[in-house]
Amino acid sequence: MWTKALANHVARWLRAGHWLLGLLGLLWACAACDPVGNITLDAPVAASASNAYYVDTLTVRVATVWHDSVLTSGGDNLLVGRYHDPRLGTITARSYFQVGLGGTYSPALDEVYDSLVLVLKPDGYRYGDTTQLQNLEVHRLRDALVATKNYYAFSQLNYDAALLNQGRSTRPLAARLSVRNLRLRLADALGRELLAAGLAGSLTTDAELTNRLAGLVLTPGAADDAALLRTQVSTEGGALNLYTHSPTDPATVITKAFTLAAGSKHFYQVTADRTGTLLAPLSTSLQALDVARTAQEAYIDGALGLQTKIEIPYLADLRSFGTRLTIVQATVSLEVVPGSATRYLAPPASLAAYLSTRANQQGAALGSSTATALAIPYQSGISNLTGLETSGYAVPVTDYCQAVVDRTLDNYGLLLATASASPERVVLGGPKRAENRLKLGLYFLTH
């Protein structure tokens, strides 16, 4: 969908001239010798000392790769909920977190217990069906988190099956914009336990609090099929609030706010039950599933670790057209499959591309000399096939193609991923779809 502008640019860049019919015939003969690669060249535009050619028939292989090592303890987010995605399966998110003391807790000896309330501050992020009621459940964590340990989307810790709250049906804030927080009242037994510990002088450090209360776990209701909600632990107002009062002034509320710990003291777990979906064969980390087995669709999802792998297996065969060869520009255009995106299943605002190893491991970022990957923006344009408005991503692969042709880089392909560990997903068309299919456009010069 971005080929025409590029073609005009190259045409203006080169000085017009006559076709070199002998060379063109040789190029076509070379192409005929490689039916597997299926390299077909458009007619060249010749300059005085150069010949420019356009190729859009190079074979491209596309697959969905599953990476299970998605780090979720390094950010600020908690995620909870369950949603059935018809393409990706039933996605379930749980969050594990400690609470901090927020200063020595020394209640007055005559303070009277009122209630214990977990206050969460959801942000604007939603994933799934925001019209459905859902339950947020709170459990007591058994195993303490280790501050120096990384936790991933596959990580899990033991917690009590019993609910600390009675469960609460709530709608995401997208449906009730006036609601700014969620208040979940917890078991009085836990609240009285914390008050008693404070009265005994045994809640003076975070370590003492953690020894008594390892943490809390947020889970969705067992039958929920709604949306995933996100909250941030550093958001002001989010806390575990213990409410008491003085018997001499019962109308005045005394609040002890146990903070929601930041850093590596929290993480979220995200799992997917792919039963009945085209992705059901994905069962092993780093496994690749070719688009031929997924209806010519490739998938990307940040939280689930789904990435799209792109390979151009016969790229080095361009050397048959001349050993002195310069890739002027090469772009892989990917279009979003119609109907796969909705308001709350929106494609990522940008993707990042990484070099792949033979075993589908993620390597260095494409197009950057630093650790920061080049952002590939989501954009709208005109479809190459239908001439209709469409949307997708244009991946610049010029440097990659040149390095492969120069034999300075192994041709193991590229991995496209989201920039975050949130469940942002997109469905991309494969190279053999009738419409909205992947397209590689490549301009090169022979000298």
UniProtKB/TrEMBL annotation:
Superkingdom, natural source: Bacteria
Pfam families to which the protein is assigned, alphabetical: DUF4270
Protein name: DUF4270 family protein
